Amino acid sequence: MAEATVYYLEDDPRILELTLYTLAQTGIRAEGFSSAGEFLDACAESVPDLVLLDIMLPDVDGLTVLRRLRGEPATRDVPVMMLTAKGDELDKAYGLDLGADDYLAKPFGMVELLARVRALLRRSQAPARGEATEPDRLSFGGIVLDEGRHTVTADGVPVSLTPKEFDLLKTLMASPGRVLSRDRLLADVWDVAFSGGTRTVDVHVRTLRQKLAAAAPGSERAVETVRGVGYRLGDGHHG
């Protein structure tokens, strides 16, 4: 983790300086940016391992920046933690829907920030590490998920998933037939205890189904909607 690089887009120089200093003291290379333009230019030049993103910015708001990151192939899978003003529930929901991985309300403590940063870096870097243990392999119908290799196939055809889509499918495949609520999936996959009307689970289920269908038509039916409750991995693949 000592080689990890974090980019922080923040227009408050005091918060920016303190955060960069704290990250550096723990061996995390961090670069700060006060404007969206220079931040996006830096991302185009060198992709970071993690982005800390303030919502309230003077030039372009952080949600617009997040949308830009998720729209670019090079940065669409980079973990992003939003830093929001306390009580901005709508921004939190919208940010998660756009693909943010976590959020932290201001004012925040450095200990909590570091814990969240380390958790996101561990999660994003885990597939790249060579594990000595036997890789977990889950299968359901024609869908096979290999956690050790971080691959998914549907009827033998590779399916390219984002980290969050992969984790969502893994969570559903770990409990076949069991209905998992949206709040439960949000907590297990996104590690956040917040719903507030966010549709991020629904959005990710939709894209997951689309990718499964593109690889093997019919496989998307394995991810079933239980109206008013949530989702489960069911026998739709065979029906």
UniProtKB/TrEMBL annotation:
Stored SMART domains: REC (SM00448), Trans_reg_C (SM00862)
Keyword DNA-binding (UniProt): yes
One Gene Ontology term from the biological process aspect of the record: regulation of DNA-templated transcription
Gene3D superfamilies referenced in this protein's UniProt entry, alphabetically: 3.40.50.2300, 6.10.250.690, Winged helix-like DNA-binding domain superfamily/Winged helix DNA-binding domain
Residues with the 4-aspartylphosphate modification: 54
Domain Response regulatory: 5-121
One Pfam family per UniProt: Response_reg
The OmpR/PhoB-type domain, residue ranges: 135-235
GO CC term (a single one): protein-DNA complex
Record feature DNA-binding region, as residue ranges: 135-235
Keyword annotations of the record: DNA-binding, Phosphoprotein, Transcription, Transcription regulation, Two-component regulatory system
Transcription in keyword set: yes
One MF term in the entry's GO annotations: phosphorelay response regulator activity
InterPro entries recorded: CheY-like_superfamily (IPR011006), OmpR/PhoB-type_DNA-bd (IPR001867), Sig_transdc_resp-reg_C-effctor (IPR016032), Sig_transdc_resp-reg_receiver (IPR001789), WalR-like (IPR039420), WH-like_DNA-bd_sf (IPR036388)
Protein name, per record: DNA-binding response regulator
Protein's organism: Granulimonas faecalis
Gene giving rise to this polypeptide: phoB
